[in-house]
Design brief:
The chain is an alpha/beta fold. Among the domains are: 130 residues, 3-Layer(aba) Sandwich (Rossmann fold), CATH 3.40.50; 112 residues, Jelly Rolls, CATH 2.60.120. It contains 8 helices and 22 strands. The strands form 5 sheets. Strands 11, 12, 13, 14, 16, 19 and 21 form a 7-stranded mixed sheet that branches. A 5-stranded parallel sheet has the order 2-1-3-4-5, sandwiched between helices. Strand 8 and strand 9 form a beta hairpin. The N and C termini lie far apart (67 Å).
Length: 371
């Protein structure tokens, strides 16, 4: 069992790191945040086999807190270790602003130097990460992350401010950060360049593109069109956006088109991968009796009993596929076959449908013909 201390354990990176560490049976996690005392810090740091030093200040009430919160707290931690002849490995999350001539950057650089000197003096392993902008779940909006702020605002219809749409951000995703941090503890090979440890994957995005993606996520509840999410960045950004939804807005209604057969509702649409819809069909009712030149579909009955029927439009033979909700079977609908689905049971039939293209009322590619 390895005992791990995490300072700043309830901050953005700390919470995500702790959530992953606590899933491991070989790790005991000790957590320090602003509510703990210096005595707590000393007690926990002397128990630790590895230290993640994530605590810091970046939005102080007074500028003097930069140096006391970033450099001073780090120096105190190192003094505890040296006084007790400890050589505990330590990882510190610093910032790319350590290269800049501002109070925050100077305080982060000073903290880095304390860590480096400790490693040289006692022979301890030290890991200094200069992180660019980090995004993901649990980052505080209106604090230090444009992604968090924009996700929060857009999900609540609060206006955002874009001063320079062409400005480019370098972003790293929280899961990549946590994975690299844990690899450091586990002695797994890391990305080490320019005398610092780096997160291997960095995403470059312009502010205008970030804004466009987030707005498309917002609109998707009305249009039902989900972004393709074909890149890792888009997938990670969409997950991040959803993490900022108000807790009373997790659900949204679909339009249900009712008629004498039951109802039908569109669920998800994509620009390049078609759409998904669902229907409820009453006993004895038939849906379909049409064919397509190019459009193809998949049918999946998830409740009730039905028969899917086919006939090649130039032929007479009728093919029948019994389906039911207790033994799931997907039925492919090829082009050139008129087809229908008939509820043959005594209860309603629920069916999931997928079509390989979005429905276009001006060019529906749907032609009525009895099976």
């Amino acid at each position: 069992m390895k005992t791990v201390l995490v300072t700043g354990a309830y901050g953005f990176i700390g919470r995500n790191l702790v959530a992953s560490l606590e899933r491991r049976e070989d790790v005991e996690v000790l957590k320090i945040d602003s509510k703990n005392t210096l005595e707590d810090l000393e007690q926990y740091s002397l128990k630790a086999d590895f230290i993640y030093h994530l605590a810091g200040i970046n939005r102080p009430v007074d500028d003097g807190e930069f140096m006391s919160g970033n450099f001073g707290y780090t120096e105190h931690l190192i003094n505890i270790l040296e006084k007790n002849n400890k050589s505990t490995p330590i990882l510190i999350s610093s910032s790319i602003q350590a290269d800049l001539d501002n109070l925050y950057g100077k305080s982060k650089l000073a903290a880095e130097e304390v860590i480096s000197a400790y490693g040289d003096k006692v022979g301890a392993k030290t890991f200094i990460y200069r992180l660019p902008n980090v995004f993901g779940k649990w980052s505080r909006p209106n604090y230090n992350s444009v992604v968090a702020t924009w996700c929060y605002n857009i999900s609540r219809d609060i206006p955002i401010q874009v001063n320079n749409p062409e400005a480019q951000l370098n972003l790293v995703y929280i899961d990549d950060v946590v994975e690299s941090f844990i690899d450091a503890m586990d002695n797994i090979a890391l990305n080490y360049t320019e005398n610092r440890y780096q997160i291997s994957r960095v995403f470059e995005v312009k502010l205008k593109d970030l804004e466009a993606s987030l707005i498309s996520f917002k609109k998707s509840r009305n249009t039902l069109v989900i972004s393709d999410l074909k890149s890792d960045f888009e997938r990670f950004l969409y997950s991040t956006y959803l993490s900022y939804l108000p807790e009373d807005k997790f659900g949204y209604d679909l339009e249900m088109k009712h008629d004498n057969r039951g109802w039908l509702a569109e669920f998800i649409k994509t620009e390049h991968s078609g759409q998904v819809f669902i229907s409820r069909t009453k006993p004895g009712i038939t849906r379909g009796n049409h064919w397509h030149h190019t459009k193809v579909e998949k049918f999946l009955v998830i409740e009730g009993e039905a028969v899917v029927k086919f006939r090649q439009i130039e032929g007479n033979e009728v093919l029948e596929y019994p389906v039911n909700g207790t033994s799931l079977k997907v039925i492919d609908i090829p082009p050139g076959y008129t087809h229908s689905i008939v509820n043959t049971g005594t209860t309603d039939v629920l069916t999931l449908f997928w079509a390989n293209e979005l429905f276009n009322p001006d060019k529906p590619d749907t032609y009525f013909l009895e099976v």
